[in-house]
């Protein structure tokens, strides 16, 4: 609270009451504190004028315009500001404070505009704007202190919470997350980066929880590489296969079911990754069961699609390099770092309640988790088959195939 209050100061006696009132509503504070952080510095008038404009956004529009321009509320802005300042006290750079630098960076990734527009809006040269953006990106991408603290493999309690959320959602038992890839466009002439959709890009893969938190971020792979290959060579696969069976298991229909993640049809089923059934390969007796299970599988796995959609919707810089040409973000390394930084900011905003993705709990009774210390056998009897049969029993009981199909068709029509 004190760190955020320090960021707002008295510009003049007329605006202070409005600023205090806005703070009281946003933060629940009884009053504001006057500091020097937002006062105009006579030696750096441009900095002070820009800071006065930010305070004007608060006074005149609360934080509505601030949210539109920079993609976050004012408390979230200063939470991110304080994280970077504590981890990397390297500002000011070129007489640009971290506050103004972070505004430049957020404006860039949220709007995806060209640097000449930033030059005009923030009264800085293009070279300075690029330097500022690259510096803040490096403070938030893979290898940085902030990234390692917010984008990391889950703890046991986080996995169990996500598992229960998926199960409460539609009865899929044992799933803790979902995995998928997405293309980030780049400017290059290398054919290896030409993807199946016909443009050059990197392929970036993320694993998310039921609540939308990103647990793993695998970036920089050429666009021609499939999601399956990315997963096979990823560090997350090694961690999952070695660690998930050690966190415990549940007895489902007489079999041990460990934690696992959900993937789409391109992935090869494993003990820690379950893909949907290929309905074209099913026998007539199996087709309805597979169809029903795939519907439930997809309704859980869609969480990763939602996160990717929110990432690209919130951070327009991930969408098209043609907007800014051959700049750092349009290169392979630059696109990878930007994507990692956006994932890091997403998790930060998720942790502080700036964004929210969740399920309405139904509180289904779930078999207890049995924790183990030894590495028990992971080769369970067809994990996907057991999960499917349990899912069908929980959701459809003794319904006939015709009744299941009628129910699913009704559900799909309601969604449309």
Describe the structure in your own words.
It contains 16 helices and seven strands. It is of the alpha/beta class and 416 residues long. Strands 3-2-1-6-7 form a five-stranded mixed sheet. The protein has a two-stranded antiparallel sheet with strand order 4-5. Helix 6 packs across helix 8, helix 8 (126-140) crosses helix 14 (332-351) and helix 13 (284-314) crosses helix 15. The radius of gyration is 25 Å and the shape is elongated. The model is unreliable at 1-51 and 373-381 (pLDDT under 50).
Strands in their spatial order, largest beta sheet: 3-2-1-6-7
Note the total helix count. Answer: 16
What is the number of E strands? 7
Helix content: 40-55%
CA radius of gyration: 25 Å
Main features:
two-stranded antiparallel sheet; alpha/beta; disordered N terminus; elongated; 50% helix; 16 helices; 416 residues
Topology readout:
Layout: H1 2-5, H2 16-27, H3 45-61, H4 64-70, H5 74-87, H6 98-111, H7 115-122, H8 126-140, H9 145-150, H10 156-170, E1 175-185, E2 201-208, E3 214-222, H11 227-232, H12 235-243, E4 249-252, E5 255-258, E6 260-262, E7 273-274, H13 284-314, H14 332-351, H15 383-395, H16 401-415
Parallel strand pairs: 1-6, 6-7
Antiparallel strand pairs: 1-2, 2-3, 4-5
Helix pairs in contact: 6-8, 8-14, 13-15, 13-16
